[in-house]
């Protein structure tokens, strides 16, 4: 039988261009840490409940000594309270740290989705526009303003950060940051019709100092290595 | 009762020898009255045992269809860049897999279980509205067939089972695919809603006498809470479907952001249904587990009261956490934190149940048998699904995992695993009741292990591939990624699981033929469904027990023969009536003699007319839709016209020295409570509509509209006043009838008032600004006014029915239920109508306030 401990083993070393467990930015990094903590906790709880089930079935004499009220109070009330309270506090703090930093006034990039392609615009970069490729400066927080021209899509670069939906009529802001220069992959994560599967985009992260020039070159149509 | 060990007392002390003959004679008389005829007469069946089995078998057929569709997706995804299916086909297949599993398998299956089992466990002979059960079944069958045929025709829904708009709008899905979903699913949902009302009324007032609510077996509590959740959860989806269909068919822009609608409104309405739906499906399964586990452990359930509190808490909580399906739509983080906390807290009532079951097993001597194997399968999958559920309730993690295969894995653990394992365990457990045979376990054990191993192999690996970034609903993927081997193993697991399910079904069918014959109660259970000969006779109990303790501690061995001898209530026949008892809602004191309708083809004809209305709507033949809707309504009026009796009976003896009024003369017959709970559902729909208007006002783009609403104030106020007057007329009519005076004049005046209201509403709708097709403001105003028209129209039908029944002698001063119902309906219409019209009048002020919108 497969179980949660097995998962930990299998995940070690599991990488890939879209892996949330190979983070390349602070947001994806803190969510990955959150995941590993939750995995450990969940594994322990799963083992506990299934262990109790096994004890009840195999060692009924032991199990019968615990009073019914104690089973329900300890397992149904105390256990969830102990597990959930710190988890919820930790998650709230993590989530707050991931929000767009309005006060810091970071660079803004507009990502517009339509069936079935992405267009990126750079109001801070002279109004440059790069279809299908998102250019980012490394080590710099960027607010991506995500909109849609038709149906609902979702903007997601798994190795950099969580996702946000592109909802027609609304503008959503996602804060992302890449640690290092390199090429990453992004995709549409909300089912949007026939071309949903192919609605991907590349993310090219440039050294921060070279970013303006690289963006200008890309917008002018020259392919960036 | 004097003797304390006498769990379920029955009166009389007839000598055994004489009574054996009496029992057989009683059996013959009751069977003659309650039986469903052979051949074509089967289509006229209204009996709960017959219909319950039909529901379950039909649901299993749809489970097989949905399963095949699931396997098709696994074939397509087994290898990268597969060309097995085109993306268009794949979209139809996964949409229909989800839609069938949820709407045509899970919910009808729980309804079938409720219909078949609940009356037996509660010690009564049938449900409250047998013809409505039959109508619900036919609607389900026809609606499900429409959806399935659309798949064969290649025009099946293809926008995903949650049908997010604008993708499902007529701009981006111009064919009839989305209409099939909206109409087919709404058809099935309305049948589910009628059944939910019936389940509530039946549980509340049709139990064995003496069975107060706190003596009700835990299964009754689970079904009661489930059905209450259904009447609160389905109306938002039904409303959403009506609004989306009217956007598609008539251009009313409720969800179109370019005309003041908002696609997020659909998501709110959908998940207001969708999240409670998870618990609606899970709770009956938990009810089966709570019933089976004590028997399999040879003990009684531990923590009965804690479980009742837990499931009520779960029901409340489940309505407050729908937003956790929408963590990525751009809602402020602190609001998300609220819903996140709520979602995590759901773990508490769930854990209470898990540990109550563990404690029950611990207190008894659990036996390993096939149902227990499935209990084990349930524990492992449900705990796993619960833990990943808590993970997904954590907002930052959900931002990564949302809409990936991690979520697919999670909900298959909590929905597929937590339904399939208890369900198959329950099928093995109750098989002797259904067939009169106990299972011989040859194939059963290997079938279980194939399901268990296959299930975990398929879905466990999906967690992993999801974390590696694989999104849901893609029809293929490139080879370069680390997803390939995980997908292949998932697909292999899927086939193992499918073989397991196929074997289990073959095994169950074989048991019907080859199982060992058994007379009654093979599990030494202590609930009333076993206190009858098995398989059950159409009337269930030859006489109805009087319950003295909690009804999961019945001494079945003593009670069953006494009941068969007719020593309980109603151990005789009278006028060829199908008789059962109605009790006080909480105390369980007997209050009325309920006489149920015999077999009839009327439900079939009514459902066929309804199906014709749906099909003509699909074909866009709206005149035919109107005609068929009129036929459906006429058949309902006809059914109501023939209900009950055309004379008074006074109090009639029911045995054990008790006499009760017939339900037609009782203060609150089942129909009264049915209307009360129908109005609860209707009020939920109305509230959802008001919520929709306010939501658009607060959040939708392209507000305010160009035109400012300018409603005819005098006409609107006059309509409100006339609505109130119509309610007064309805009361006067009731007062007249009960006071033995002629009510007809008052009824005619009430009808005239309602007609005037309808006329005023039509004028108001025609003069709406902005035009309903131009802006969502006009569309929602039109929807509110149409709500009034529909309710006033139904009020007219109530008056029409009452008039017909007065003329035919079915209504009398003592049988005044028709006018009671009419009074209640028109009161409700007046209140909601005043609110609706008032809201429309307030629209200009709302628009002016938009300057304050953030």
TrEMBL record, chain A:
Keywords: Copper, Electron transport, Membrane, Metal-binding, Respiratory chain, Transmembrane, Transmembrane helix, Transport
Pfam entry (one): COX2
PROSITE patterns, A to Z: COX2 (PS00078), COX2_CUA (PS50857)
Compartments, as annotated in UniProt: Membrane
Primary localization class, coarse: membrane
Record's catalysed reaction(s): 4 Fe(II)-[cytochrome c] + O2 + 8 H(+)(in) = 4 Fe(III)-[cytochrome c] + 2 H2O + 4 H(+)(out)
Domain of life: Bacteria
Boundaries of every Cytochrome oxidase subunit II copper A binding domain copy: 104-217
Membrane topology: Multi-pass membrane protein
Transmembrane stretches, start-end: 34-58, 70-93
Function in brief: Subunits I and II form the functional core of the enzyme complex. Electrons originating in cytochrome c are transferred via heme a and Cu(A) to the binuclear center formed by heme a3 and Cu(B).
Family: Belongs to the cytochrome c oxidase subunit 2 family.
NCBIfam families named in the record: CoxB
Protein name: Cytochrome aa3 subunit 2
Species name: Ancylobacter amanitiformis
UniProtKB/TrEMBL annotation, chain B:
Subcellular location: Cell membrane
EC number: 7.1.1.9
TM spans (from-to): 51-73, 93-117, 137-156, 180-206, 218-244, 278-297, 304-323, 335-361, 373-397, 409-431, 443-465, 485-510, 601-619, 625-644, 672-698, 713-734, 746-769, 781-804, 825-847
Keywords: Cell membrane, Copper, Electron transport, Heme, Iron, Membrane, Metal-binding, Respiratory chain, Translocase, Transmembrane, Transmembrane helix, Transport
Annotated ranges, domain Heme-copper oxidase subunit III family profile: 590-845
UniProt topology in membrane: Multi-pass membrane protein
Pfam families found in the cross-reference section: COX1 (PF00115)
Domain Cytochrome oxidase subunit I profile: 34-548
SUPFAM superfamilies assigned: Cytochrome c oxidase subunit I-like, Cytochrome c oxidase subunit III-like
Pathway info: Energy metabolism; oxidative phosphorylation
Catalyzed reaction equations: 4 Fe(II)-[cytochrome c] + O2 + 8 H(+)(in) = 4 Fe(III)-[cytochrome c] + 2 H2O + 4 H(+)(out)
UniProt name for this protein: cytochrome-c oxidase
Species for this entry: Ancylobacter amanitiformis
């Amino acid at each position: 039988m497969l179980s949660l401990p097995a998962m930990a083993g299998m995940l070690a070393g599991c990488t890939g261009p879209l892996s949330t467990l190979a983070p390349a930015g602070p947001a994806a990094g803190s969510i990955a840490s959150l995941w590993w903590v939750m995995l450990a906790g969940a594994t322990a709880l799963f083992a506990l409940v299934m262990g109790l089930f096994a004890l009840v079935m195999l060692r009924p004499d032991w199990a019968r000594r615990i009073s019914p009220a104690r089973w329900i109070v300890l397992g149904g009330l105390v256990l969830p309270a102990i597990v959930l309270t710190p988890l919820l506090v930790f998650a709230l703090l993590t989530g707050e740290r991931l929000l767009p930093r309005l006060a810091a006034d970071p660079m803004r990039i507009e990502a517009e989705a339509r069936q079935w392609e992405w267009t990126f615009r750079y109001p801070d970069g002279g109004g440059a526009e790069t279809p299908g490729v998102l250019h980012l400066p490394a080590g710099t927080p960027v607010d991506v303003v995500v909109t849609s021209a038709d149906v609902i899509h979702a903007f997601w670069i798994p190795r950099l950060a969580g996702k946000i939906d592109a909802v027609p009529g609304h503008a959503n802001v996602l804060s992302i940051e890449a640690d290092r220069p390199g090429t990453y992959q992004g995709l549409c994560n909300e089912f949007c019709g026939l071309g949903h599967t192919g609605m991907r985009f590349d993310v090219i992260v440039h050294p921060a100092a070279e970013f303006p020039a690289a963006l200008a070159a890309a917008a002018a149509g020259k392919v960036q290595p | 009762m004097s003797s304390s060990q006498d769990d379920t007392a029955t009166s009389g002390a007839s000598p055994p020898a004489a009574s054996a003959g009496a029992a057989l004679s009683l059996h013959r008389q009751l069977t003659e009255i309650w039986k469903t005829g052979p051949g074509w007469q089967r289509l006229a069946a209204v009996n709960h045992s017959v219909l319950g089995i039909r529901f379950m078998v039909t649901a299993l057929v749809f489970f097989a269809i949905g399963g095949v569709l699931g396997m098709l997706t696994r074939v397509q995804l087994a290898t990268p860049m597969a060309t097995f299916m085109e993306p268009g086909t794949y979209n139809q297949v996964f949409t229909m897999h989800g839609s069938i599993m949820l709407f045509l398998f899970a919910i009808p299956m729980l309804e079938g279980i409720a219909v078949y089992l609940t009356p037996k466990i509660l010690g009564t002979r049938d449900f409250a509205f047998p013809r409505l059960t039959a109508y619900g079944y036919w609607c389900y069958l026809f609606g499900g067939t429409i959806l399935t045929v659309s798949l064969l025709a290649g025009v099946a829904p293809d926008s995903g089972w949650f049908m997010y708009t604008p993708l499902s709008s007529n701009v981006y899905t111009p064919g009839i695919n989305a209409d099939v979903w909206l109409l087919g699913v709404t058809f099935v949902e309305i049948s589910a809603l009628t059944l939910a009302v019936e389940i509530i009324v039946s549980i509340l007032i049709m139990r064995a006498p003496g069975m107060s609510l706190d003596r009700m077996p835990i299964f009754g509590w689970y079904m009661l809470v489930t059905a209450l959740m259904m009447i609160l959860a389905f109306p938002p989806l039904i409303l959403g479907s009506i609004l989306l269909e009217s956007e598609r068919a008539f251009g009313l822009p409720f969800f179109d952001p370019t005309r003041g609608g908002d696609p997020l409104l659909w998501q709110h309405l959908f998940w207001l249904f969708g999240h409670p739906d998870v618990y609606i499906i899970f709770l009956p399964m938990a009810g089966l587990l709570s019933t089976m586990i004590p028997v399999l452990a040879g003990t009684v359930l531990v923590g009965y009261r804690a479980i009742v509190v837990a499931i009520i808490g779960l029901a409340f909580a489940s309505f407050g956490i729908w937003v956790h399906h929408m963590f990525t739509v751009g809602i402020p983080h602190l609001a998300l934190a609220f819903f996140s906390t709520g979602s995590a807290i759901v773990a508490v009532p769930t854990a209470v149940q898990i540990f109550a079951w563990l404690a029950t097993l611990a207190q008894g001597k659990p036996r390993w048998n096939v149902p227990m194997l499935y209990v084990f399968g349930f524990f492992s999958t449900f705990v796993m699904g619960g833990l990943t559920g808590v993970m997904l309730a954590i907002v930052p993690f959900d931002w990564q995992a949302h809409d990936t295969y991690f979520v697919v894995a999670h909900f298959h653990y909590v929905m597929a695993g937590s339904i399939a394992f208890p369900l198959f365990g329950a099928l093995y457990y109750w098989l002797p009741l259904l067939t009169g045979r106990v299972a011989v376990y040859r194939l059963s054990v290997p079938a279980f292990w194939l399901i268990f191993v296959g299930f975990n192999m398929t879905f466990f690996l999906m967690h992993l591939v999801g974390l590696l970034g694989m999104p849901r609903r893609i029809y293929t993927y490139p080879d370069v990624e680390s997803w390939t081997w995980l997908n292949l193993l998932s697909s292999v697991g899927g086939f193992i699981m499918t073989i397991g399910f196929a074997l289990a079904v073959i095994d169950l069918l074989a048991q019907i033929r080859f199982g060992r014959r058994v007379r009654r109660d093979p599990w030494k259970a202590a609930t009333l469904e076993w206190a009858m000969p098995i398989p059950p006779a159409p009337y269930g109990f030859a006489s109805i027990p009087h319950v003295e303790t909690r009804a999961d501690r019945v001494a079945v061995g003593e009670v069953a023969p006494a009941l068969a001898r007719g020593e309980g209530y109603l151990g005789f026949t009278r006028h060829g009536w199908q008789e059962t008892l109605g009790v006080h809602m909480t105390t369980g004191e007997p209050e009325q003699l309920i006489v149920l309708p015999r077999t009839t083809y009327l439900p079939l004809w009514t459902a066929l007319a309804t199906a014709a209305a749906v099909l003509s709507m699909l074909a866009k033949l709206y005149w035919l839709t109107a005609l068929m809707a009129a036929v459906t309504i006429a058949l309902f009026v006809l059914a109501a016209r023939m209900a009950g009796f055309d004379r008074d009976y006074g109090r009639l003896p029911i045995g054990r020295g008790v006499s009760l009024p017939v339900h037609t003369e009782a203060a609150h017959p089942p129909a009264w409570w049915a209307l009360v709970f129908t109005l609860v559902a209707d009020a939920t729909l109305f509230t959802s509509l008001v919520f929709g208007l306010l939501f658009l006002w607060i959040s939708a783009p392209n507000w305010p509209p160009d035109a400012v609403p300018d409603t005819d104030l005098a006409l609107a106020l006059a309509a409100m006043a006339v609505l109130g007057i119509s309610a007064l007329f309805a009361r006067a009519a009731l007062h007249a009838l009960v006071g033995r005076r002629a009510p007809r004049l008052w009824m005619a005046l009430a009808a005239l008032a309602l007609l005037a209201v309808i006329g005023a509403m039509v004028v108001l709708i025609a003069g709406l600004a902005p035009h309903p097709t131009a802006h969502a403001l006009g569309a929602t105003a039109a929807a509110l006014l149409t709500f009034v028209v529909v309710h006033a129209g139904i009020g007219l039908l109530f008056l029409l029915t009452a008039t017909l029944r007065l003329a035919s002698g079915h209504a009398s001063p003592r049988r005044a239920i028709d006018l009671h119902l009419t009074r209640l309906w028109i009161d409700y219409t007046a209140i909601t109508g005043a609110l609706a019209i008032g809201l429309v009048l307030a629209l200009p002020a709302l628009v002016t306030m938009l300057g304050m919108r953030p």
